[in-house]
TrEMBL record:
Gene3D superfamilies: 2-enoyl-CoA Hydratase, Chain A, domain 1, Lyase 2-enoyl-coa Hydratase, Chain A, domain 2. This is enoyl-CoA hydratase. One of its GO terms (molecular function) is enoyl-CoA hydratase activity. PROSITE patterns: ENOYL_COA_HYDRATASE. Keywords: Fatty acid metabolism, Lipid metabolism, Lyase. Pfam families: ECH_1. Its EC number is 4.2.1.17.
Length: 258
């Protein structure tokens, strides 16, 4: 499939998606959403693919929603198009695991897109921010909600109200990113991590993702109940029998994916 704003390649069971609007520091316009939506749908539907990595360039993961595209829109346009809602239905809805590999700027919608990933691996050059306030707006792709859940109220308020950037070290200390690697190793590290995830029993990977996400949506009692039920459902798979037998027989498991 031909994409205008992203590059997509398959490396064994890992799909690598690269944002590719260098002239705009990978600003997220409507075409990026169309392309990413199609790429994530294809990834989810392809039984040979088990984990994805989304990355940008050395200078910018993405510098935000495309300000030039938004500048002339009226409030009614944003409302009637339900602007930004597609990110939830086309990107967050992805059921298989995916990682954001972030170098350089991840600002506004760029930070929000990274936070849609299951986790973020950051280069030591990464800089995160929600600078929308400087444009007299506020986050629109989940920043005020996901950043607050990730780093807590104090830091989220600091970031949203001052519009300042957080470097990779502060992002790791604050729980926004899973780990930091030297910029030169970012893609390699993210692809190796994705390959490790892709080698896991695929349904178990999808259910683990779902379980952790449920922690963001529900209270503890409901979350624990859902966790037990999902565990019980997973135990019905052929792969569960194989996984436990392989452990006892001291050999690697061979997964059917069901
Ligand atoms: N939208 C559209 N174009 C953008 C852009 C954006 N978010 N960010 C950068 N660009 C464009 C610039 O306009 C410039 O294009 P031209 O060469 O045609 O002028 C090109 O990318 C290179 O950018 P700079 O010359 O500004 O590069 P720099 O190195 O001097 O600065 C930067 C880098 C600090 C990231 C700066 O570009 C910047 O501040 N960008 C905007 C960041 C921002 O405000 N993001 C939030 C957007 S609103 C949003 O995302 C809403 C939401 O919640 C979804």
């Amino acid at each position: 499939m031909a994409y205008e704003t992203i590059l997509v390649e398959q490396r064994d069971a890992v799909t690598l998606i690269t944002l590719n609007r260098p002239q705009a520091l990978n600003a997220l316009n409507s075409q990026v959403l169309v392309d990413l939506g199609a790429a994530f749908a294809a990834f989810d539907a392809d039984p040979s693919q088990h984990c994805a990595v989304l990355t940008g360039s050395e200078k910018a993961f993405a510098a935000g929603a495309d300000i030039k595209e938004m500048a002339d829109k009226l409030a009614a346009d944003f409302f009637l198009e339900d602007f930004f809602s597609g990110w939830q239905s086309k990107v967050v809805a992805t059921r298989k695991p995916w990682i954001a590999a972030v170098a350089g700027f991840a600002l506004g919608g760029g930070c929000e897109l990274a936070m849609m990933a299951d986790f973020i691996i950051a280069a030591d050059t990464a800089r995160f921010g929600q600078p929308e306030i400087k444009l007299a707006v506020a986050p629109g792709m989940g920043g005020s909600q996901r950043l607050t859940r990730a780093v807590g109220k104090a830091k989220a308020m600091d970031m949203c109200l001052t519009g300042r950037m957080m470097d990779a070290q502060e992002a790791e200390r604050s729980g926004l990113v899973a780990r930091i690697v030297p910029a030169a190793d970012l893609l390699d590290d993210a692809l190796k991590t994705a390959a490790a995830i892709a080698s896991m029993p695929p349904m178990a990977a999808m259910v683990n993702k779902e379980m952790v996400n449920i922690a963001f949506e529900t209270g503890l009692a409901q979350g624990l109940l859902t966790e037990r039920r999902l565990f019980q459902i997973l135990s019905a798979t052929d792969d569960r029998k194989e996984g436990m037998a392989a452990f006892i027989e001291k050999r690697p498991g061979v997964w059917k994916g069901r």
